[in-house]
Amino acid sequence: MCGILGYSHVERRLPRGVLENALASLIHRGPDHQGHFTSELISLGATRLRILDLEGGDQPLFSPDGDVVLVFNGEIFNHNEIRRELESLGARFETHCDTEVVLHAFLHWGRECFSRLRGMFGIAIWVQSERRLFLARDRMGIKPLYYSLQNGEIYFASELKCLFAHPEIPRRICLAGLNCFLSLNYVPAPYTLVEGIRKLLPGHMLEWHDGHCDVRSYLEAPAARSAPRSIGEACEELDELLTRAVREQLVSDVPVGIWLSGGMDSSTILRYAAQTGATNLRTFSVTFKGRSFDESESIGEITRYFGSRHDELDLDESADLENAIRRMAFYSDEPSADAGALPAWFLAEMTARKVTVILTGEGADELFAGYLTYKADRYAAWARRTPAGLRRAALSLAGRLPVSDDKISFEYKLKRFLHGSLLSPEQAHIFWNGTFSEEEKQRFFRFADRGPMAELLSQVPEGPVLQRFLAFDLRYYLADDILYKVDRMTMAHSIEARPPFLDPRIVDFARSLPDDFKLHGSKSKYVLRRLMRDKLPPNVMKRPKIGFDIPVHDWFRGVLRPLLLETISEEAVTGSRLFQWDAVQRLLNDHLERRANLGYHLWGLMVLLLWMKEWKIGPPEQELPAAEAEASLLDRVGSL
């Protein structure tokens, strides 16, 4: 696992100190080795966290003739089978690391090599004789890759802070990205929150040559795949796929552990890890003892069942929450309104004392319809058969319910559901998992614009409702919220997270399943539940999905109130030139005086302002009603 970066300087000299400062800012992603390459035309850098072949594989890596230079972030889980194929074609290897496999794969297959890689990666390859740069990102977006085109040059990096190291990068807020952030709680690719910087989409490659840039998908058209004929057949296939994926992802030359939430997904990973015969399995959890959403009892039952060596942290008001939140503003690169980043920070901090690699359960919910929002999509279709006036009246009545301090209480879910039922199906789906509706943004955001979100929602494919929203969440929510959060929080503590559910073979399998194998009546993740019903303790299988989060409504009225008011102050809000202070103040007062639960909304605004302060991000150069320069960006990079 590494961090990578690069700056071309074909026409303009790279300012002194940029490469060194950028490398220093990525030490957390690679504390074991830092290396760089500089030629007349380009400078590349890499920091390495040694996972495989601890003595070999330092970067940059060069082809035997020195013409091709590689920097690589990630892991290739099928590197041994690719190595054997390449050896049969005459390749000779000097190390046992996967980085050298990527290099020789490119030397033999060129740009066609990326589709052969099964893993998680951000790759940069410079071909000196052709003056050509290739960037590629893994299929699911597990590893990040940013780039910026400036005056005929290209700059790229694993994290935004490396691009900020270059003085030509303007630190101005991107209004299109911000419009999406306020709706979704995250910034969907290719947008970022900084003008002129883009994310490379998952499953895409970029080819740059003398100032000309081409971005396209490298994925091959999926082969026709017949769906399993029965739920039993589906369970058998999933069992085999999970066995392979977990076995491959346990391979490491450093200690490996498993993040355990107490739910079915992470428990499934633990079960398959135990099945491999792996000894001395270590598990790690965060609990919230005394809270309604605490899973410590379930976690204890699972660890006893599989006999893992378990470390646990109970997160409460006594933890140094404020310091962690402030540090997250540095390591997060972009703000994420997913408050689950905070327990992930403390979990990663604890984990790093014992292991370097961690397996997680990310991806199962998006593959097999695990979220409550998928049920809400279905229920809302029925609710919309009633007159809208009745639903508005019900929402008004729900507004009289007492406000709860619970993380996601019944009254909170009821109000969100009724509000969402008054929106279009596409808007409702993102509203239930997001924060501000378009109408709500109009009240406080000076640059509120329906365009960016309308553009994004136009990417939702045609088809049955469940398939449409699973595809959307796989493309955007999974990559730009869930995987982004896990990557930044783990790499901030120099540990590598691996999600076995996102093995491409499992992803393709899940896409082939009929809807009923995913959402079966009211049973979510049906095929996974059927598979695991005899493999996990019964109490684990019966538990409702709880989610990895904090009691943000309560903490903002208590322990985090000082940080909230200090950060979302009149001075900070007016100074941003983005928001109307009177409207923001009403949000604060409504929450603090218990007229509404707006903790998640305020969390997003707080982390945004903390991030803007940390990185000195200024307002847009021109006060436009929308970011026209970015509005058609999605059209240029393809659709779902």
In short:
With 640 residues, this protein is α+β, with helices and mostly antiparallel strands.
Description of the molecule:
It is built from 28 helices and 17 strands. The chain has 640 residues and is of the alpha+beta class. The strands form 3 sheets. A 6-stranded antiparallel sheet has the order 2-3-1-9-8-10. A 6-stranded antiparallel sheet has the order 4-5-6-7-11-12, with helices on one face. It has a 5-stranded parallel sheet with strand order 15-14-13-16-17, sandwiched between helices. α8 links the parallel β14 and β15. α9 crosses α10, α9 packs across α26 and α12 (372-383) runs antiparallel to α15. The longest helix has 27 residues, at 465-491. The chain is globular, with a radius of gyration of 24 Å.
